[in-house]
Amino acid sequence: MPGISNTDNLWQALALLTPLTIPKVYSTGHIPSFNSTAGYAGGFNNFSPFVALNHTGIYTKEQGNLQGTIAIEQDFSPLIKGLKMRAQGAYTATSYFDELRRTIPEMYYATGRNVDGSLRMLRTFQAVQTMYSSGQDQYRKFFLESNITYENVFDENHRLSGLLYYYISDHKQVSSIPTYAQTLPSSLAALPIRYQGLSGRITYGYRDTYLLDLNFGYTGSENFQPGRQYGFFPSMAIGWIPTQYDFVKNGVPWLNFFKVRFSHGSVGNDRITGNRRFAYLTTFDYTGAGWGGTTGINENLVGADNLEWEKAIKSDLGIESQLFKQRLSFTVDFFNDKRDGIFQQRTQVPGYIGAVNMPYGNVGSMVSYGSDGNITYLQPVTDNLSFTVRGNFTYSRNEVKNWEQVVQKYDYQYNNGWPNGTVRGFKSLGLFRDEADVAASATQFGTVLPGDIKYKDINADGKIDDYDKIPLSLQNNFPSLMYGFGGEISYKDWTFGFLFKGTGKMEYYHVGIHDSRLGGNNGIGYIPFHDQEMGNVLSIVADQSNRWTPASYSGNPATENPNAMFPRLTYGYNENNSKLSDFWKRDGRYLRLQEVSASYKMKLQKLKKIGISSIEFQLVGSNLYTWDKVGIYHPEQAWRNGIIYPIPAQYSFQLYIHL
Amino acid sequence: MKKTLINLFLIIPFFCLILISQSCKDFLDISEYSRDLLTYDSIFSNKDNLEAYLWGAAAQLPLEGAIWGNGSAQGKSFPGIACSDEGFIQWISAGWQSGQLIQGMINADNVAGTNMYIWDQMYKIIRKVNILIANIHLCEGLTTLQRNEYLGYARFLRAYAYWHILSVHGPVILVGDQVYETNMTPDYYVIERATYDESVEYICSEMESAAPFIPVSVPISYFGRPTRGSVYGMIARIRLQHASPLFNGGGGASGDAGNSARLYFNTWTRASDGKHYVNQEYDERRWALAAYAAKRVMDMNTYSLHIYEADLFTPDLPANMPNKENYPNGPGGIDPYRSYSDMFTGESLAANNPEFVWGRMDASVREYTRHSFPKEFGGYGGMALTQKVVDAFYMADGSDPVAPGTADCPYDETGFMTGIKSFSGYQLGGGPPVFNMYVNREARFYACVGFSQCFWPMSSTTESGKYNQYFGYAADDNAGKYQSVGNVEDYTTTGYVSKKYIHRDDAFSGTNAARLNKPFGIIRYAEILLSYAEALNNLTQTWTIEGSDGVEYVFSRDENEIAKAFNLVRYRAGLPGLTAAQLASKELMFNAIERERMIEFLHENRRYYDIRRWGIYLNRDSEPIEGMDIEGKRSDGTYYHRVRLNNLRARSRVTDKKMIWLPISTTEIKKVPTISQNPGW
How many CB atoms lie within 10 A of CB A557? Predict the structure, then answer.
């Protein structure tokens, strides 16, 4: 990787600097850089990818991995048939060693020309000799498990098995010792993450037709206070396979296999987002003292002594079947997860109780539901020719049932009842037509002129503010439905295959989404001149019909198109037009030709003599074509306006030698 | 079979090893690591930690001297100077939230982000005290005496925190000794505010019961810790506020003040029982209680006004002074300038000052003197005094500054003084001539007011050109508006700056520039004296109050008692005592008290509360801000006439009855909708 940044930054530099801003190298031989500070990531994408790749040194990363496992297994079958015991200990150690040799060349920006025609150079970066820095990290894990299993069949019809499983684990990582805004003493934050659990399972099958499965888990985590460390998580599953009956086998011969299964049970989570550990502990700091005292002690973090495992109840109903001499097979699952006691930092604890900060509590709840399935059909045509088609889908949705929020002014400000991650922003009403339109509308942001985006005043209070933000999309750039389908045709030694992949409704925003890499709004590189000289000016902007142009400038009132794709051109950040609103919402759904392959398997007697059974030649092309509505970017890059490493099309030729 | 047995011999010890090496029970236990960290158990089992926990809570009190409306460096601060009529600033940047408040930029939505919002922080103190009260029995090393002393400090601290809330935010939520759970559903937290009267009674009764356990004096090294006298002094302040018109159904006053309780709070009632949050009925007995509270401090015989005995440099009293007896019977024998000034500038040793009923060293006072120094001398220059304050100061003989003045102390708003007058270590004149308005004034005037061509010794710096300066605030002067380079708001808009806390050595620019450490008088004995006089002045009948010592005290409007207390403050300032006419009239007496408090406690954060409790906030605060004409020049004399400030911030200054208190944050009210917001917010 280049010494100055990671590969993503190369794409950022590509998108943020137009070829007009700086050349590859100035005619004087000076290495160009647009600016030293005014850019993002410390100004490091203010110079071209060419400079970043060739003049900034090198960054290397080594990773070492050590793994040791020792296991002992004991079969007690001679004593009790089907009883086995096993114990295993594992040690994993991973270490990273990063080295950075960074140089920065002397870089310049040409601000103009001198009277004699030579370039007037402004030095933007001072040369820095190779700086060496390294980073190390270590991770290690102990894992110890033992189990007792039992499996037996009685009277041919009763299949019984049991499992008792015990484990302990302990892992820690140097770099993951977190630094909080509210600091937990690092002597605690550095403690290893530990689990200890006992789980068991009993399965019973009668004639392989009725299946029963009982499980439990009793798991402890170091993250809770003694007495609440353990969570109990039982679950059960039942199954029924009617195709095992003789009357079904005989009466419905085309049905080869049919199974209905249902499972219901609970699982737990003991980790709080952001790695806030030991949230039950109240911690203290030595502080200054008042009233003539010398030392003070004050609470640092307030603990909540009733924290416990977050629990999810998961249910799943599934059907598996094979039909028509097993040519058609399919599986469908419907699932519903209800998650309660989600860790959330409290917001409704009032100030008058005097807590120094908000504790965490098991307050959130959420449901998610959905379905997935796949289907395969295999059709032999002749002995030499056959074809297969298959398809799959996944559909999932979720809904926040309880998300603790401070009492809000309006109902639509609550997260409850909406999916997790709902995008909230302004509703746009197109572009302002004229001054009268601006004057007659609610107060917006900054100086608003005709051609700027007009927002809907949801609460009708005459000004556009946070109270006017409403849910715009269920999630940013995330589809609830994903599907795929494909097929294969085989003729003699030839096989031809293809695979499509696609998404259902997926919405993204060109502008208004916070992008930490850009230090702000993602509108740069989409809205022209959003960041003055920096940022692409897209060719779609050059097309006048795509943007609002004042009639006073174009001489034609028709160019004041209130439904244009872009608002009026402004130079620099336009506060009003850069807000997150559905004006910038686009449809990101796509269907992609994921893979096309052709292969030929050569079987020659001569080869067999030298020990080779066959040779297979394969030509594979992946990510070949996409059908979408995005147009200017690849759909999976669109939400970042292309400032991200793209998914490349790949063509490969593969040769397999089967022995 | 044989193989199996061998394996069994291997596997059984292996299992044992697992089970023994990691005793399952302790595997998840982190107490080994957290044991050495502080916990409530380890805090309350150890006397030193217990004490640190208490002083840690006290450290969260706002600095009482953080009154200039800033305080980002010190944490919490008070609206104070910039939000009353005794000062005027232009600053409204993030650090100057009192500037934002007076400009109407603060509302219930954003108030929680300001330094002035002390609601949450005071409740943190209250919670800590409640935790301490619930756990102090765990500490075995404490003697009963020590335990009672800690509990005394803790309960006073809690009551004092409530008092801060009551003065800044209005009626409090009383939580008693309860330590609320931190992780419950909203219905657990439903609560209403107490009324103003309930708040006061709780605070006073807590302070009364704490006082006997608080030592009468503290060692010098603990200067800043409250004493029993501090507690009694605080009760005196609270009782006086409680008796005052705004909070006492008019307080026996007439006119606007008499109507104030109704005007401000008539419709503000508690939802559950319909009680007025602020009492609408006048109860004269409260004045008697206030008189007793002040008298109790006086009767301790511990405190007296700070005086500096007359020396060679002390000026003679004006010839027309009616009473030249020595202090305390008259203004003689002391140096009024140094008696007053030295306790603010840091010259006088604070810990020995008999006038500090409660005081503390306060770095914020020291550092914020910077806002009085001109831009070119390392300062920010904009801490302006209003002309109203300047006019309030008496002449040196106690007459009013009205032309032509008296024969001994002529007053003139034209012309200039010639020559130099030196007295008490102060130098008047010596640079460009001093305007006659500033000549022949009382000592406190020279201690407090930095007027044009005032002499600034700044003796700590050794850099030539940085000491012995005369600052002028006219447009063509060295500290005028147009010298404020860089920041256009760093100049005085009235032609006056606050000089009260500035020592003659203090400097902010030049080699070796340094400032003396300064105390802040949280309660000065002068306040107790004036409060006593004020309380007595409001009595129309005789009241008998049973004191905390079981003795019955009788109070009535005794002119001798009023004069005895009040005149001490006057004499110390080198002024004559009250006239018989003033003593005879309740109204004239009130005027004298208002003016005396305005002068005596200038920039000590009393005026902000005084004009509110007297019910005259709207009248006083809405008066236009006046000063010298800073657009005028010294060279042609156009500077030297009084003008209404022609200034953006002066025009947009907000006077609104809602500003009696700061609002409670919208967030808090949304969390607990039964908490009633202050009127008007």
Answer: 10
Domain-ending residue, one of A95, A119, A145: A145
Compare all CA atoms of chain A with the CA of B673 and give the residue at the minimum distance: A407
Domain B225-307+318-333+350-362+529-615 in this protein, CATH class: mainly alpha
Question: Do A595 and A574 belong together in one domain?
Answer: no
Question: A593 with A501, same domain?
Answer: yes
**pLDDT tens across B588-635, in order?**
999 999 999 999 999 999 999 999 999 999 999 999 999 999 999 999
Contacts of A117 (CB under 8 A, 6+ apart): none
Site of tokens 């208190």: B661
Q: Report the mean per-residue pLDDT for chain A.
A: 84
Distance from CA of A147 to the nearest CA of B (A): 11
Whether pLDDT at B5 is above 50 = no
Mutation for A interface: B55, B199, B664, most A CBs within 10 A:
B55
**ipTM of the complex in this document:** 0.87
Instruction: With respect to residue A27, please indicate whether it lies within any of the assigned structural domains.
Output: yes
Q: What percent of chain A has pLDDT over 70?
A: 95
A622 or A81, higher pLDDT? A622
Residue with tokens 């007027």: B451
A295 CB within 8 Å of a chain B CB: yes
Contact A580, A426 (CB under 8 A): yes
The predicted pLDDT at position A58 comes to 83
Q: Cβ–Cβ of B56/A296 closer than 8 Å? A: yes
Assess whether A649 and A522 both reside in one domain: no
Question: Which chain B residue is nearest to residue A190, measuring alpha carbons?
Answer: B33
Question: What are the tens digits of pLDDT across the range B476-512?
Answer: 999 998 887 766 789 999 999 999 999 999 999 999 9
Average pLDDT, integer, range B571-586? 95
| Residue with tokens 């904009």, as numbered in its chain | B382
Angle between helices B559-572 and B336-345 (to 10 degrees): 80
Residues B495/B453, Cβ–Cβ less than 8 Å:
no
- Does any domain span residue A28? yes
What residues make up the domain containing A563? Answer: 421-473+507-587
Q: Does one domain contain both A513 and A631?
A: no
Asked if A497 and A574 sit in the same domain, the reply is: no
Task: Provide the pairing of β-strand B449-450 with B426-428.
Answer: unpaired
Domain with CATH 1.25.40.900 in chain B: 225-307+318-333+350-362+529-615
Please tell me which residue of chain B has the smallest CA distance to A185: B37
Residue that finishes a domain, picked among A587, A615, A637: A587
Same domain, yes or no, for A428 and A549? yes
**Whether residue A516 has pLDDT greater than 80:** no
C-alpha to C-alpha distance for B304 and B306, rounded to whole angstroms: 6
Do B40 and A282 lie within an 8 Å CB cutoff? yes
A225 touches chain B (CB under 8 A): no
CB pairs under 8 A between A and B: 198
* Rounded Cα gap, residues B444 and B572, in angstroms: 10
Q: How many CA atoms lie within 13 A of B27 on its CB side?
A: 26
Best B10, B36, B118, B183 member to test A by mutation, with max A CBs in 10 Å, is B183
CB–CB contact A290 B153 (8 Å): no
The whole-angstrom separation of Cα A375 and Cα A392 is 6
Query: Is the same domain home to A533 and A602?
Result: no
* Within a domain: A631: yes
Alpha carbon of A640: minimum distance to chain B alpha carbons (Å)? 34
Query: What is the chain B residue with the closest CA to A345?
Result: B183
Q: CA nearest B121: which of B53, B200, B58? A: B58
Chain A contacts of B126, Cβ < 8 Å?
354
| Residue predicted with more confidence, A6 or B323 | B323
A435 has a chain B CB within 8 A of its CB: no
Domain count, chain A: 3
Best A167, A196, A198, A352 member to test B by mutation, with max B CBs in 10 Å, is A352
Q: Closest approach of chain A CAs to the CA of B490, in angstroms?
A: 28
Question: Is residue A259 over pLDDT 80?
Answer: yes
